[in-house]
User: What shape does this take?
Amino acid sequence: MEKLISKVTEKHILFTASFVIRLALVAYGDYQDRTMAVKYTDIDYHVFTDAARFITEGESPYNRSTYRYTPLLAWLLTPNIYLNMVFGKILFIVCDVLSGLLIYKVLCLRGLRAETARCVSSLWLLNPLPMGVSSRGNAESILAALVLGTLLCMEGKAQRLTWAALLYGLSVHMKIYPVTYALPIALTLRTAEIRVDEAKKTSRFKKLVGFFVSFFNRDLLLFAVVAGGVFFTLTALFYYMYGWQFLYETYLYHLTRRDIRHNFSPYFYMLYLTAESTWSQWLGLAAFLPQFALLLVTSWMYYKDLAFCCFLHTAIFVTFNKVCTSQYFLWYLCLLPLVIPNLSLTVKQGLGLLLLWFAGQGIWLGPAYFLEFEGYNTFLWIWLAGLLFQVVNCFILIQIIYDVNLLFHHIPKSTLTFTFKYEARIMKVPTVSQDPKVRLWPVYQIA
Amino acid sequence: MYFKLFCVVSALSLFSKCHCLGEKDEIQNHCDLLRQWLAPSSVTVELNKKGFHREVTTTVEFRSKELSGVKVLLIHRWPRDVYVDPYQLASLSDQNKWKILLDSPIDLEVPAHEASGFVTYVYPFSTGPTSKLFKVTIPIHGRYHKPSFDGKMFKSVDIEAPELLLRTEKCAQLSSLEPHTVVDAPCTASNSSTCSWVKVKPQQDLNPVSFQLPVGDGSLVAHVCGGTLLVTMICCVALSKYMWKHQII
Assistant: This one.
C-alpha cells in the first residue's frame, strides 16, 4: 500500500495523472451533454460562453443576464467561440493542476520534505471535488491559482513582493473575497515590533502611535501601490468599456446581494421573511457584524502564519456570509492542504471531521430537495439544517484552531525577558516513521 | 378576318374568366379548408412534475382531414408567479417540434411581487402531412413569493389555457370566416412581420390548471430572527474565545 502511494505521488506521475483524469472527465462531460437529459456541464459555463459570444460580436458581456463576473473572464473565454467550446474547460483544468503545483511549492517552502509535500498536494490533485468542479466548467480554479500564487510569492525569506502584489490585485479584481486578506498581509509586511523588557513601561499612546507608524514601510507601500494599481487600472479600463453595469454586476451586486432563495447560509430564512420589512437593513447589519469582527480577530491572532490565516479567514467569511453556495467551499478548500501538515489530528479524527462536514451538507440537501423538486413546505427544516451546518463548520474550525496550536509554543507573556524577531526559523524535527503518532512535519520554534 | 379575331379575343377572355373564377374558387376552397379547421378541435393542458420546476403540456387535436398549408399558433398568457428560462428554451430548441417567441425580457431571479406576467407565442410545426396532433411542452419555473402571515403554507398559481390561432397564406379574406375572431400576431417566431390570425373557439371552456408553491411562514419571523442571531452570536463568541486562547505570539 505504501509502495503504491509513493509510486502514485512521484512528481511526474502525480501531475500527469491528475491532468489526464480531468481531461477524461471533460471528454465524458461532452458525451453526457450530447446524449443524456441531465447535463454534466454547469449552467455557469453556458453563461460565460454566451457572454464571450457577445464580446465577439462587439457588445457588452452583461447583455447575458446573470453574468456577474469580470469582463476579463469573458475575454479569456472568447476562444470558446473562435476555436471550440471546450477551450474554457481546458483552461480551468490547467489552472486546477497549476493550483496543485503551487500547493506543492508552498509546502516545500514551509519546510516539508518533497515526498510529503507531494502526498499532501495529492489531496487536491486527486480530489474528486475540484476535479468535478473544474471539468463542469466553473471558473473557481483560476481564483485558487491566483490566491495560491500570491501566498507562494509571500512565503519564505525570498519574498517576491511585486509578483505577490500583482497576483493579489488580479485576484481581488476577479472576485471580491480576497480583499479580506489585505489586513493579514498588511500586518505581515509592516515593520516588526521590538519587544522590550516588561519592566520598562511605554505609554499606551506611544504604543498606539508606534503601531500605526509600523504600517508605513517600503514593503507594505510597494505592495499597496502595485496591488492597488492593478486593481484600479483594470476597474477603470472596464468601466470605460462597459460603464456602470460592469461595476454593478461585478462588485456591487455581490456586496449587496440578498438572495432570499434557499442556500446554505444560516441567515437565508431570516432574510427571506424580513425582505419586505423595515428591519431588513438592520438585520443585514446584524448579520455582517459577527463576520467582520471574526475577520479582525483572525487577522490579529494569526497573521504570522499567512497561509493558515488566509484559510481561517476564508472559512469564516463563507460560514458567516449572508449567502453560501457549494462553489464557495472551494475558496478555502484550496488552502486546506497548506494547513494539514500543521495539524496533529490522526487520520481517524481527520476523516471523522470530514464526514461530519459532509453530513452537515447532506442534512441540508434533504429538505432543500423536497422543497425545490417535490414541492413540500420544508422551509423550517432548511433553516434548522442551515443553523446546524453553521455549528458543524464552527466546531470543525475550532478543532483545527485547537489542534494547530499544538505546534506553536504558547509562551505566557510574563516569562518574556529577551528581545526576539517575530520571524520564526523553521527547524526540521527528526522523525521515526513507524510511530504513527509522531508528526512528520516541522515544528515552529522561536529562535 | 375580323370575325376570326373576334373569336380569338372572346375565347381568350372566356379562358381568363374561367381561370379567374378558378382562382377565386381555389381561394374559396382554402378559406373553406380553414373553416373546417376551425371546427371544434380539442385542446388539453396538462401539468407535469412537482415543486418549483414544472412542465406545461398543451395538446391540440384537429378533426379536419386535410392539413397542409395551415399554420398554428398557441398564445400562452403566463402569470407573474412563474417564469420560463429563455436560455433553457434555446438549448431545447433542437429537440422540439416548435419555436417560441417571448413578448418581453424575463428576469430569472426576482420574486413574484416584483415580476410581471408575460406572453409566449408558440409555433408548432407538424410532424407529417397527415398529422392532426400538436404537442407542446414548455418547462416553467416557480418564483419565490412573499411569506404568508395567515398560516397558509402554499400559494396557488393558476395557468390559463392557451389561445389557439390559425392562418393560411392562401386565404386572405379572414373576414369571411366570421363569427370567428381575427387577431394580429407575429407571423413566425422570428417576429419579422405581423399577420392576421383566426382564433379557434375551443370545444368547451377550459378551466385553468393550477398548482401550489410553498411559501415562508411569516408568523415565525420573530423566532427565526431570534434563533438565527442567537446561534450565530454563540458561534462567533466561541470562535473568538478559542482564537484568543490559541493565538500565535
